[in-house]
Design goal:
19 helices
Length: 356
Amino acid sequence: MKVEKNISAKRIILFLLFLEHLFCYYFNNILNRENLVDSADFYTRALEVSLMKDLPYLLYPGRGMLLITSVSVKVLSNFHALSLFFSLVSFIPYYDITKKYFEPAGKENNMFLKITFLFILFMPSIHIWTAGIFKEAVVFPVMYLLLKGILKNRGNLMKADLILYIAVLFMIRPYLVCIIFAAYLITYFKYLNKKLLVLVSAFLLLVFLVLLTVFGSLNDLSDLNNLMSNINKFSQAQGNAVIDLETTNYFERLLYMMFRPLFFDAVTGPQLIYSFENIILIVWFLIFLYKAIIKKIKASYLLKNIFFVSSSIVWLFLGIYIYNYGLASRMKIMIIPFLMMGVLISIKQQPSEKNN
């Protein structure tokens, strides 16, 4: 009976998830002009691209989404059809998490686990920023499949599918691959063979040297301040809900990125939705910290989980320069669901004891 209840409950959840995702697709393509402009820009640029002529340009790291869109538009030339295609691609993690991880009526009777799963699945901002022609529509499922594959293969990266996921992420957001590799070293350092350890370390060293070259062109702190000031002016020119890089410190930006906007500083309809979401997120973090302090959730298990470590480093990295609440809600797609998945998997891996 429990198995049948599980199957029935999962089907209902998947149906509701699909409805929410389709509504966000409709919202992005019909109602939300800001997101529509963003999607339309990718679509328009993809139509203008000549794959043969512009291939060297498209293969440059960071331009992977334009390459993927340019190839896809040759098959699905209609804007709404292409947007729906990317929306369906981004639904992959929802389907997989519901089918393989969530136990709505199973033996696991931990309310914290169930609420966390439901928050991951129904969190509005993730659906909004993945239901359309957005980078996140590709980054979200590919990052999920990569981290899940690393976990499943116990740190073995030498699999064709994992190499493909790494390549796709590197083409879209190169820094994300660097972060995942750093998390990989932290998580699996004890278990790596020498050859793989050398390859990953060499890649990270190369990235560090490139960054050193870039920042080495800054003569002193005044140059760095000027750079931050220019980013700040750019963010103010983009619209509302700015996080001032010159008056906030790093720790404040970490908190603003994760827990703002709230109702008192929301200025748009989507920000009101994010405010409600952030209230739930604050409560979740307080419960998580409480469980961590009383050792119901053990740090040793969290630090061995690639989901948790990767998302934590992404959060720490993005806090350096995050300048807008809209951008923050978008970037949290690479943090919140994976951080929570790391917590949930770590709880399930701990010796069986009541975690309530």
